[in-house]
């Protein structure tokens, strides 16, 4: 069972046949989605048994009375011709006409996207609508699906006709981006710019003090003097500083250093990244900021084509990095360093 503010998404059962018939017998609901209106309660009962029993098919119910008013479904590999991958699926839905226009479907779709991409480990959710279905098109736009292409002469077998179909897609990266940019969180992850350089200097020093316990005063002075020049040379070229602000003040950050190396099988395009300076000011801990920053940073790293990224984890950061996909690097090599004394 899944839950949103106003809705419960639960399995269909045979007792829902009357409610299903009430809404699915409306000629404005099924045909535009590709299936004929139901002609009897028996037919609806049959559909519950044979069509709506899929592993990821849910009845949409209002919390107030628990009655089924629509359907939302993930069609998994083997039940969709949009993909033949096990980590991709197609979403389909319809809603009883009396409930249209209240944002109910977008609410259900967003929860199903979360379910597909977070609980079911899907990488992509495909979705479509037939030419002329502007309401469904709006739902898909409002939920952040990205338009991909149109296909002419798509077979609509249950209606014995051909139509033009429009296909959109939500990838896991786009979902994470949507989620972190969602106003619900009232928090945005941004890339710092040159106007932030003074703050980035202080954040680096704060981080170093926290990481090392303390740093030598002279070292701190040298760093403070040299860092602005370093940032001017590298920021938004091969160094990206992801930040969250509260009241215009940066309270959390992480740096991504992009390093291009001569290609090897371990980094086939040579593009690698190092993450450093993951730091949230103490009074802003436990608000999920570091995770939000890491989600955005990783999505962007993929967009930049980076194939491996490394970091040195403190004890405090370990579980966060694990949860966003980092693993211990059991290297066959000796880690060595040389110091110019
Ligand atoms: C498509 C459908 C699920 C939309 O559900 P919903 O909960 O009404 O979605 P929303 O409230 O977000 O409305 C979506 C858009 O439909 C339009 N709309 C909604 N109710 C409407 C109504 N009564 N009259 C005219 N337009 C309406 C609006 O343009 C709205 O977009 P907006 O918010 O930008 O104004 C529903 O109309 C439906 O079940 N249609 C038939 C089956 C179907 O088409 N399924 C999808 C197959 S791909």
Produce a short descriptive summary.
The protein has helices at residues 17-24, 30-33, 41-50, 104-119, 134-142, 172-181, 197-212, 217-234, 289-303, 318-323; strands at 2-3, 7-10, 57-62, 68-75, 88-95, 124-130, 146-156, 161-171, 189-191, 239-246, 249-260, 271-280, 308-310.
Question: What features would you describe in this structure?
Answer:
By secondary structure, the chain is of the alpha+beta class. The strands form 2 sheets. An 8-stranded mixed β-sheet has the order 1-2-3-4-5-6-8-7, sandwiched between helices. A 5-stranded mixed β-sheet has the order 9-10-11-12-13. The longest helix is centred in the middle third of the chain and has 18 residues. The model has no long low-confidence stretch (mean pLDDT 94). The structure holds coenzyme A.
Layout of strands and helices, then pairs:
Blueprint: E1 2-3, E2 7-10, H1 17-24, H2 30-33, H3 41-50, E3 57-62, E4 68-75, E5 88-95, H4 104-119, E6 124-130, H5 134-142, E7 146-156, E8 161-171, H6 172-181, E9 189-191, H7 197-212, H8 217-234, E10 239-246, E11 249-260, E12 271-280, H9 289-303, E13 308-310, H10 318-323
Parallel strand pairs: 5-6, 12-13
Antiparallel strand pairs: 1-2, 2-3, 3-4, 4-5, 6-8, 7-8, 9-10, 10-11, 11-12
The protein binds coenzyme A (COA).
The site of coenzyme A (COA) has 20 residues, from helix 2, strand 5, helix 4 and helix 5.
């Amino acid at each position: 069972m899944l839950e949103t503010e106003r809705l419960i998404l639960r399995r269909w059962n045979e007792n829902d046949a009357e409610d299903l018939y009430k809404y699915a017998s409306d000629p404005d609901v099924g045909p535009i989605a590709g299936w004929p209106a139901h002609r009897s309660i028996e037919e609806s009962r049959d559909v519950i048994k044979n069509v709506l029993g899929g592993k990821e098919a849910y009845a949409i119910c209002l919390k107030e009375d628990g009655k089924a008013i629509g359907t939302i479904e993930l069609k998994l590999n083997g039940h969709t011709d949009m993909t033949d991958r096990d980590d991709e699926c197609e979403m389909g839905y319809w809603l009883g006409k009396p409930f249209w226009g209240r944002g109910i479907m977008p609410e259900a779709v967003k929860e199903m996207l979360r379910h597909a991409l977070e609980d079911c480990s899907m990488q992509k959710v495909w979705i479509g609508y037939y030419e002329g279905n502007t309401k469904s098109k709006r739902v898909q736009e409002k939920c952040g699906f990205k338009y991909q292409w149109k296909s002419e002469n798509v077979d609509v077998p249950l209606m014995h006709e051909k139509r033009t179909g429009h296909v959109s897609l939500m990838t896991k990266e786009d979902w994470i981006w949507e989620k972190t940019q969602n106003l619900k969180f009232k928090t945005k992850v941004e890339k710092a710019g040159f106007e932030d350089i003074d703050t980035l200097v202080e954040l680096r020093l704060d981080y170093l003090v926290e990481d090392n316990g303390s740093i030598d005063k002279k070292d701190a002075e040298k760093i403070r003097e040299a860092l602005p020049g370093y940032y001017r040379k590298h920021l938004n070229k091969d160094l990206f500083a992801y930040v969250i602000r509260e009241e215009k003040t940066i309270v959390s950050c992480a740096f991504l250093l992009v390093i291009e190396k001569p290609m090897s099988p371990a980094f086939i395009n040579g593009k690698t990244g190092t993450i450093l300076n993951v730091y949230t000011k103490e009074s802003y801990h436990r608000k999920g900021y570091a995770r939000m920053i890491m989600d955005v940073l990783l999505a962007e790293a993929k967009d930049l084509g980076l194939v491996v990224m490394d970091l040195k984890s403190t004890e405090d950061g370990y579980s966060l990095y694990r949860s966003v996909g980092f693993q211990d690097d059991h290297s066959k090599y000796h880690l060595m360093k040389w110091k110019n004394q």
